[in-house]
Amino acid sequence: MRSGAVCQRVDFWNAAGVNGMGATVNVDGRISDERDAVISVFDHGFVYGEGIYETLRTYGGRLFAYKRHMRRLRNSARLIDLGLGFTDDGLAAQIGATISATNLEGLEAYVRVLVTRGVGELTYNLKATPKPSLVIIVKPFAAPPAELYENGVKVLLVDVVRNHPQSVNPMIKSNNLLNQALAAQQAFKRGAFEAVLRNYRGELTECATANLFIVKGGTALTPPLECGLLPGITREVLLEVGREAGIEMREQVLHDDDLFGADEAFLTSTTREALPIVTVNERTIGSGKPGAIARRLLQGFRDRAGMR
Q1: How many degrees, rounded to 5, is the angle at CA 56 between CA 146 and CA 25?
Q2: What total number of domains does the chain contain?
Q3: With CB atoms 3.0 to 4.6 Å apart as the test, which of 152, 298, 304, 306 could cross-link to 278 if both were Cys?
Q4: CB of 132 within 8 A of CB of 117?
Q5: Considering only 142-156, 214-228, 264-278, 294-308, which range has the smallest mean pLDDT?
């Protein structure tokens, strides 16, 4: 795993659709091939990083947890005083049209929705950007390799500190991802699949692109939102799935020793569902193999996703 972790990571992201290969793009209602998709260099999402986004995927051709994603998108917009200018149904129609224009090759869809402050003069004055820009990227979704679920992955506790809530609030799913990018790059250089960040108090928060869970004594624990982390949709659904299955699921402040001493650990996200962690830095977690709780939660999540 040490020698192949970075390659696995890069290959997965290429397949999942973030490198722009084979994508269909909708820019403010204009649907085109990725090569013809353009947005102004004066868009404040580009020059200032002012914008928000959501990543969605389909199961059985249907967007999963769409209403939850829209609830979070609207909360992110509220936190940066961004008017969206569309209804949930209107956006769903735009996404549907973009999916229909995409050659999915029999696969599910990977969908990324980005809303920026819009095009305007180079000033922070909100009056300069009366109309937000909407970009929808769709391409075939490729799931992480099965062996990652069978063998687990390595993560790295990094030196990069998660944004302070009074700086760029982690509750905002912001297009400005420099904090997470620096953390992830530090992890990749050390052969890890993901980075784990602490907050300014030294408490565990989340991964660079996922939420974090540990299991101790049969109880699944995840840091509370107050520690400074994004309210993940998969995290939210898994808390429900686990409780319905009779697994004790609890939010709790966690530190390094809790992670190192866990019986199991796993990360959660839209594109990776619940992926077991078996190594942190160079230390083995639990038995060194994916645990029973993570496997039960993954199956429960997939059952839920198939029904809704």
Answers
A1: 110
A2: 2
A3: 152
A4: yes
A5: 294-308
